[in-house]
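So, who can interpret the following?
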Amino acid sequence: MTRNLIPTIELGGTHVAVAVIDTGARSIVDGTYRTRPLDSGGDADEILEDIAAAARTLGSDHGRRWAVAVPGPFDLAEGIARYSDVGKFDALHGIDLRARLADALEANAISFTFVNDADAFALGEHAAGAARGLSRFCCVTLGTGVGSGWVVAGERTDGAAPGGELHLLEFEGQRIEARMSRRAIRAAYARQMRLTAEVPDVREIAELARSGDPIALEVLEDAFSYLGRALADPLGRFDAEALVIGGTIARSWDLLEAPLSAGLGRPGLPVIRAELSHEAPMIGAAYAAQAALAGSRIS
């Protein structure tokens, strides 16, 4: 088995994670995964130093082809952050992360491959998770917002969404995330319960639903059913073989699957829970970096 080691960084809204990925084994090298808190509302120098400090823990016993999974909006080709009024990483707007990380890590700037985090998640599931063997699928990640990755024959595509991003689509007169996102679910529950403070998070709302709280159950069923209806047309136009669902909200699969499938209204389309969690975007980003170097697709 070929042992190709790629150091990988995954940038999240509240954390930075790093690991060395063995693309031959399609897995994280034991003992290399680390995560640390990250203040996405901090200033640019603090954010960049936290990222670099996490990356330095990987040492040098690996290849020097870095993979970086980042949330959008981001100029992946140039390595420049385009965050502006998105609620996180605004201080990085216009900054050349490729150059700054190369300097901080004493690496060659051209060794960095940037990958959208939702695309990386989808590619990771294709390489080592629930989407192995699929040739055409959409992977939707549910958490702070709605992320989406579209894969055809091991390569990411834009699928049936602008730039590949479902959250930019409008359905029933509003953006999808206005009804299906962490913020939207919490706001809907607060309205129904007439709460003005101490609004429970989605995980707590899910626990309330399981314990028989009718308002919590109604709020979640409404959000998941809406998502299904919103996805029906894009998935049909894409001719997807399957829909893969990941992200933190997918942990409430027992509450999500039925209303999502009912809203989707496509009994012949498999709705599959992602098998990986934190590993998915890191494995996918590493594979994308390897493919970029080789000029080939992920197989």
Summary: The longest helix spans residues 214-238. The chain has a mean pLDDT of 93.
